[in-house]
């Protein structure tokens, strides 16, 4: 009985430690704060792409584009609005602990997790231009969802598409 209680206590501690990121949502929002802007694309103090949502609910172009791209390719497995499914994890929650470089790597190269008699496979999307050319957009959208800055569903208002986004899209897609 004492052994079971010790195992239960250990598992409970691991659970609470692994889920502690949800407690510090304000800290996460602060980390995602806009520090700079370049042609309509926003960055945090570390130079990582981030979102900007105005008081009236207008999202920057990249957040809106990320919403569209996520729902065209990612939601099938990861559920609407990044909330997960019985098939794949909630990316809005994953981004609370996953850094930008790791996100890019996993999406481009894929990932395989095996444990507890279960195998989860994230296919590689590095060759899929409809995903890879918009990775920053998808990341920005999920980052906004992770800190609950963007509500579920289609953003009600969006900023216009900046020239830099048009130019990058044309060069990446080969147009």
UniProtKB/TrEMBL annotation:
Database matches in PROSITE patterns: CYTC (PS51007)
UniProt-listed Pfam families: Cytochrome_CBB3
One example GO MF annotation: electron transfer activity
Gene3D superfamilies given in the database record: Cytochrome c-like domain (1.10.760.10)
Lineage, opening ranks: Bacteria, Pseudomonadati, Pseudomonadota, Alphaproteobacteria, Hyphomicrobiales
Domain of life: Bacteria
Name this polypeptide is given: C-type cytochrome, methanol metabolism-related
Organism from which the protein derives: Endobacterium cereale
UniProt KW Nucleotidyltransferase keyword: no
The keyword Protein biosynthesis is annotated on this UniProt entry: no
Segments for region (Disordered): 151-175
Domain Cytochrome c residue range list: 55-146
Keywords, in A-Z order: Heme, Iron, Metal-binding, Signal
Annotated Basic and acidic residues bias: 157-169
Annotated signal peptide: 1-25
């Amino acid at each position: 009985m004492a052994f079971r209680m010790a195992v239960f206590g250990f598992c409970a501690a691991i659970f609470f430690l692994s889920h502690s990121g949800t407690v510090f949502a304000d800290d996460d929002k602060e980390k995602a704060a806009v520090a700079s802007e370049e042609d309509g694309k926003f960055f945090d103090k570390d130079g990582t792409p981030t979102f900007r949502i105005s008081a009236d609910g207008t999202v920057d172009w990249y957040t809106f584009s990320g919403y569209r791209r996520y729902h065209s390719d990612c939601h099938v497995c990861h559920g609407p609005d990044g909330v997960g499914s019985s098939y794949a994890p909630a990316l809005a929650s994953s981004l609370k602990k996953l850094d930008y470089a790791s996100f890019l790597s996993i999406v481009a190269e894929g990932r395989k997790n095996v444990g507890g008699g279960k195998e989860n496979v994230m296919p590689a999307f590095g060759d899929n231009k409809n995903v890879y050319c918009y990775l920053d957009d998808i990341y920005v959208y999920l980052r906004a969802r992770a800190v609950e800055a963007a509500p579920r569903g289609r953003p009600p208002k969006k900023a216009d598409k900046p020239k830099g986004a048009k130019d990058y899209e044309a060069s990446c897609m080969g147009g």
